[in-house]
């Protein structure tokens, strides 16, 4: 029951903790919740510490439920284990073991604290993605596509506006909100002139990451005008300089998917969304670094030659090597369909 | 309650009544079912007559529930209205009015029979397709596609076997069972050498309809060997003659979708399934004569150049004119997805 409550805190904070995992903590005493904590932002206090701050002296002899094993290391904040010991918490119930940590549980036990692991399949899966990203030093990456049933994102005239409907757009805003950054190609920026914002009340607009190998950029485009928002350009052009302070240029020797994602992770982006044209989309889907794939299908057939298929590659692979996902959810969004896929890791 | 029972009889007999609609009838007396009837085959007794035969003298003063308005015309069988009057049934409750008939209800009322229409949305939709087909003189047509998520039915090596899985194959057998005929291109027969059968216990294998404009046919292929099964070849080649009596050749001036479907309807095929390669599939999907579209998606991305997209057309249409369906059902078949679409008529 309390672990489910702690899991809700994790769901709430997805997309705002950078390369850190969202964590939720609940302190319970005498059958009542006396403290609630969540890790809100990279650099901020951890969930356990927030919960202890709320519970104050009620922490003493209380039980803390926490979604991930409390840490015992000094990162940007002091160890949670120390805070737990100091607050004289009696029992720690955590769900997922942090494979990157050692000795945390033992340390608490040495101080007479009862430590119990309570398994939770959903949380195991959730954190497995963080460990995976941490190990490879790449963000958790989602590709989003809006397509016709025959896999096209535009007709042969390159007409693509409103393949899917207004309700899908709203859903995409929610998807953007849960990511730190949106990766898109410069061609998409130039063609569609998109804002790449989250038009939801109090929604978070992710940082636009614009890919341009050549680095030939028209800085008069709308997206560069809003100086309240950081923008990153990734390029192979050593000489590219941005004329604005809110635009940062990352130079990479080679702009491939792996290098782009590693650079973004190293810059603190823990969860990125790829929302672009077929070229960038295909490159990301063709890599092994995409964990989530959200496919909005309009119940349409576009036909034509298929110049704008969302997945088109230079290499031809045998069928048994084709990219495989697992469908974890199908939803109707008015007359459109939303299919959610995951890659098994 | 009894209309739902009658509707079950309709569901059971879909795909075996040719150009006639399946109809179910239930005769009720003293709170018990005393007669059950269904139209089983074009030329056989209608549902009402079958039910009266079962109920015998119990029909007198009984109520008959029938899914479609009883007919008053001589077709291949005498009018049902006459049988109802003769059996001295007291009350007729039917669900859908047969727009192609006139005066049936009045005739029964003239004989002192109470006639009530009990609306049923599912049956209305079901029979609307029959009226539509009857009006246009074309069969109810379903296109079936097994595709990757990016709309491809094969990779660039034309490798296509088992895009979807064994469970999908089983589901396709059920789909075949509910159709009178399977339309396929000669190229598909030549390439895949398929049996086009329904390997279900006591399943019905639809008549193969092989399209070959040129009429250049290799009659040594497996499909022609089974002489217990009728096969139809549709061609623009006036001189094509089949070397077997179980193979019939239909000559058409022009083998387009409309001409093919009209010819098949005139030959007694009321419900046909298109199961072919991209060429034939695209032509049918591009016509306005396809009412049902069953799409099996494997959770795969195939990529390549897209030579084998399931929908590829010569004409490019503006997005607002793209072919539109309504998704009426999404199902998981193991790791594959089955999407069922309908065209609004």
TrEMBL record, chains A, B:
Key word Cell membrane present: no
Protein EC: 3.5.4.26, 1.1.1.193
Obligatory cofactor(s): Zn(2+)
Binding site for substrate: 160, 176, 196, 275
UniProt-annotated binding residues for NADP(+): 162, 188, 192, 199
Keyword terms: Hydrolase, Metal-binding, Multifunctional enzyme, NADP, Oxidoreductase, Riboflavin biosynthesis, Zinc
Active site: 48
Details of cofactor binding: Binds 1 zinc ion.
GO molecular function, one term: diaminohydroxyphosphoribosylaminopyrimidine deaminase activity
Catalytic activity as recorded in UniProt: 2,5-diamino-6-hydroxy-4-(5-phosphoribosylamino)-pyrimidine + H2O + H(+) = 5-amino-6-(5-phospho-D-ribosylamino)uracil + NH4(+); 5-amino-6-(5-phospho-D-ribitylamino)uracil + NADP(+) = 5-amino-6-(5-phospho-D-ribosylamino)uracil + NADPH + H(+)
Protein name: Riboflavin biosynthesis protein RibD
Native source species: Phocicoccus schoeneichii
């Amino acid at each position: 029951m309390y672990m489910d409550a702690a899991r809700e805190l994790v769901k709430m904070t997805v997309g705002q903790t950078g390369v850190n995992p969202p964590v939720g903590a609940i302190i319970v005493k005498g059958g009542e919740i006396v403290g609630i904590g969540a890790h809100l932002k990279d650099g901020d206090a951890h969930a356990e510490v927030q919960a202890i701050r709320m519970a104050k002296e009620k922490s003493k002899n209380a039980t803390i439920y926490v979604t991930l094993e409390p840490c015992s290391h000094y990162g940007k904040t002091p160890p949670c284990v120390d805070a737990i010991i100091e607050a004289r918490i009696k029992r720690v119930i955590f769900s997922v073991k942090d494979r990157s940590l050692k000795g945390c549980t033992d340390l608490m036990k040495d101080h007479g604290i009862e430590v119990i692991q309570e398994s939770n399949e959903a949380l195991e899966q959730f954190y497995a993605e963080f460990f995976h990203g941490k190990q490879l030093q790449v963000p958790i990456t989602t590709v989003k596509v809006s397509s016709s049933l025959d896999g096209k994102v535009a007709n042969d005239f390159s007409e693509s506006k409103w393949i899917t409907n207004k309700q899908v757009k709203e859903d995409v805003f929610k998807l953007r909100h849960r990511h730190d950054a949106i990766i898109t190609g410069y061609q998409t920026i130039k063609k569609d002139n998109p804002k790449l914002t989250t038009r939801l009340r109090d929604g978070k607009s992710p940082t636009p990451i614009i890919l341009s190998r050549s680095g030939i950029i028209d800085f008069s485009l709308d997206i560069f005008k809003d100086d309240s928002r950081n923008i990153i350009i990734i390029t192979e052009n050593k000489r590219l300089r941005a004329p604005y302070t809110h635009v940062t240029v990352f130079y990479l020797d080679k702009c491939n998917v792996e290098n782009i994602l590693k650079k973004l992770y190293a810059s603190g982006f823990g969860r990125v969304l790829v929302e672009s044209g077929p070229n960038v989309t295909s490159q990301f889907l063709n890599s092994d670094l995409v964990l989530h794939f959200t496919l909005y299908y309009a119940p349409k057939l576009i036909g034509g030659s298929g110049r704008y298929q969302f997945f088109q590659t230079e290499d031809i692979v045998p069928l048994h090597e084709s990219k495989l996902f697992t469908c974890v959810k199908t939803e109707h969004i008015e007359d459109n369909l939303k299919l959610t896929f995951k890659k098994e890791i």
